[in-house]
Amino acid sequence: MKNSNSLPPKKIFLFLCVSLFFVVANAQLSAKESTNDFWKHMRFGGGLGLSTGSGFFSATLAPSAIYEFNSMFGLGVGLSGTYTKRKNFYKSTVFGGSLTGLYSPIREIQLSAEFEEFLVTRDFENAAIKDDQYWHPALFFGAGYRTQNVTFGVRYNVLYDDAKSVYANAWMPFVRVYF
């Protein structure tokens, strides 16, 4: 049964192609106007996560880099790894990468599109529950408030699947920091 809330893959692919076209076109214009070198436009950041509780442990490392074409457009890549263990229940590893496009119509507002692809491995301690391994995508559209090198916002996963997603729900707050 088809989920009526999800976008067809062709529309997602078309949107990504059109977005990439505008980013590349803008980058070519910026390259002609600017004599700055590549590294002056690079910003590095990422995320760290650690969560513990009654029999629960989770750790995440997610470095990323953004190339700012100009004050309005940026494009970046990231890697992510998460290890989770719940005592007497399961262990899980999640590895993957992401592609992020950023657009700031004004300095304080940042709009984003992020595509993530993860390899999820879940090992259950209960033999009645089958272990599994699968690839799972996520496509987020977000908006945030930006102040200097920090952005606070919210994003929505249009490919959210309750049964397979590594996230608790489709809506997710975020904090981005790039230096």
Report on this model:
- This protein is 14% helix and 58% strand.
- The protein is mainly beta.
- The protein has a single domain (9-177), classed as Porin (Beta Barrel), CATH 2.40.160.
- It has an 8-stranded antiparallel β-sheet with strand order 1-2-3-4-5-6-7-8, with helices on one face.
- A hairpin with a 4-residue loop joins β2 and β3 (73-86).
- The longest helix is centred in the N-terminal third of the chain and has 25 residues, at 9-33.
- It is globular.
- The relative contact order is 0.13.
- Alpha-beta classification: mainly beta
Give the number of domains: 1
Major sheet: arrangement of strands: 1-2-3-4-5-6-7-8
For the terminal residues, how far apart are their CA atoms? 45 Å
What brief labels describe this structure?
179 residues, mainly beta, Porin, eight-stranded antiparallel beta sheet, 1 helix, disordered N terminus
Topology (elements, then pairings):
Blueprint: H1 9-33, E1 42-53, E2 56-68, E3 73-86, E4 90-106, E5 109-124, E6 132-147, E7 150-157, E8 171-177
Antiparallel strand pairs: 1-2, 2-3, 3-4, 4-5, 5-6, 6-7, 7-8
